[in-house]
Amino acid sequence: MTGRGGTRHAAAEAARLIWVAAPGGVAAFLLVTLAEAAAPVVAAWMLKLTLDTLAAGGDILWPALAMAVTGLASATAPQLTRYLSAELGRRVGVRALDRLFTALDRFVGLAPFEDPAFLDRLRLAQQGASTSGQFVSGVFGMARAAVSLVGFLAALLVISPLLALVVAVTAAPAWWAELTLSRGRAAMLWRITPNQRKEIFYSQLLGSVEAAKEIRLFGLGPFLRGRMLGERDLANAGQRAMDRKELAAQGGLGLLGALAAGAGLVWAVLAARRGELTVGDVSLLLAAVASTQAAAGTLVRSAADTHQQLIIFGHHTAVVTTEPDLPLPALPTTVPAGGQGIELRDVWFRYSDEHPWVLRGVNLTVPTGRAVALVGLNGAGKSTLVKLLCRLYDPTRGTILWNGVDVRELDPAELRGRISAVFQDHMGYDFSASDNIAVGDLTAHGDPARIGAAAQRAGVHDQLMALPQGYDTPLTRTFADGTGAGVTLSGGQWQRVALARAILRGDRDLMILDEPSSGLDPQAEHDVHERMLRYRAGRTSLLISHRLNAVRHADTIAVLDEGVIVESGHHDELMEAGGGYARLFHLQAQGYRDELVTP
Length: 599
Ligand SMILES: Nc1ncnc2c1ncn2[C@@H]1O[C@H](COP(=O)(O)OP(=O)(O)OP(=O)(O)O)[C@@H](O)[C@H]1O
Known about the structure:
The protein is of the alpha/beta class. Among the domains are: 7-190 and 244-320, ABC transporter transmembrane region fold (Up-down Bundle), CATH 1.20.1560; 339-418 and 540-599, Rossmann fold. Helices cover 64% and strands 10% of the residues. The strands form 2 sheets. It has a 6-stranded mixed beta sheet with strand order 6-7-8-3-9-10, sandwiched between helices. A 4-stranded antiparallel beta sheet has the order 2-1-4-5, with helices on one face. A hairpin with a 2-residue loop joins strand 9 and strand 10 (564-569). Helix 3 runs antiparallel to helix 5 and helix 6 packs antiparallel against helix 8. The longest helix has 53 residues, at 221-273. The chain starts with a helix and ends with a helix. The model has no long low-confidence stretch (mean pLDDT 87). Belongs to the ABC transporter superfamily. Siderophore-Fe(3+) uptake transporter (SIUT) (TC 3.A.1.21) family. Residues 27-308 form the ABC transmembrane type-1 domain. The chain crosses the membrane at residues 61-81, 149-176, 247-270, 282-300. It is found in: Cell inner membrane.
């Protein structure tokens, strides 16, 4: 949680953000706020002047006119304030959101996105970003209330210093209580964020088309709804406890204020009866006591709200200023040309200290221009190894060298610029077909020739052309962008789109194919493998597949077993050695042969 220093830092950050986002808006808001704040004080003084002048039989034209002008200002200022506050909120909100997601993009690896505490903080940071514009209204609301407070306190001081003191003193506990409550509320919001994130998760699940099949078939609706409501109940319980604390504190403080106001009223009436106060004095006093208390209340509440928002905004500041999750080189090197390729040297890896070892001393070389295949049972660590190559994590021990240079010495953007990949769990974006391929290399965005060529090589061009709006067809039924009905591709078609995406990245130094054909029918699989064989020729590539027939042409096949490379060589060598690879290969081939001989 953010402490006092953190709140101060967040306040400075918020002020900077707001000023940069809309300096003109801040100035206009300040002017209107001051006018709005001064109006009631001026009006009350003018009323006193009018009444006293009237009682003395004088001319009340000027005080009455001044009252009318301040009335006009009071009537129009709130609307103007509301508009300016909303506009400032929008501008500052956009800037804060941009800053947050720019910072998020700077995280190099995946670990932060797998850290629940970070995800909680991110949610509050988003909340802080979207409400950051409200600081201006909060702070100016405080300024407005402070001006009114000072004005009315001054009026009270003139008439009765004692009453001024009593009103000021009764407001003091409210200040302390509200700030304590705001801290408590911010802490409560942090505590219930995990529940709120889970509630969002369940609600999205209940509304998602991907989950709808299983939810309906397995009858999961009531179960998931129950869990969603359970999380809401937990969050509500936290909020309720806080609300009750506020009720008790604010109720008590309200009572104290009412007692002070009542005492002031009795005193004023008695003093007027004794002839110590004029009619105007009584009118000003009544207005001043009520308005001082109202202004003090507004000041305290605005301060408390702003304080709470600052604590929440502290999460935004914390995310934006978080150190990179993986160490970045001060002076990045570049990969020298013409090296031996990529080498994993005694690489050990586990996802965290609490997780088991996934890779245990892997030594593997992917020589330049050669194809290496990685095979192994489920959970052997193949996809993990791919993630390390892309530097989505760093090895816990050991090194990955690219042409002799440790990949940690490279700028991650340069490293990734050299790699093209089809991940096992590749994405299907709710975009058009064309954009779904273009994400592989955004320089091809809006270049139908390049996108079409990549789709052709991945063998999906004809299918995309046959869609209702060809490449412009949305590959989603979730959004309606006015481009006509979207479609849902089949699993295999998506796989080819992902392949086209990787092919679009063109001549990268390393092509990674993690299960590129798992969802394909036998004919498509054969076709894709033929295409990839041609495409890979002469390129450095790492291929992962459970279909051993698809990897047999690789220059080297490495068998990963529980995080260790247990065999490595060409297909014929491994078959001759008669180890695990040969056993798996025979097992697969046997399956097909059995099918053939069984009538
Ligand atoms: N993000 C993660 N956090 C924690 N553990 C993980 C994570 N990703 C994978 N693992 C674990 O690491 C081990 C290796 O997983 P990995 O995905 O690398 O296996 P794989 O060889 O690619 O398997 P498959 O053939 O099933 O795709 C598994 O035990 C898995 O549970």
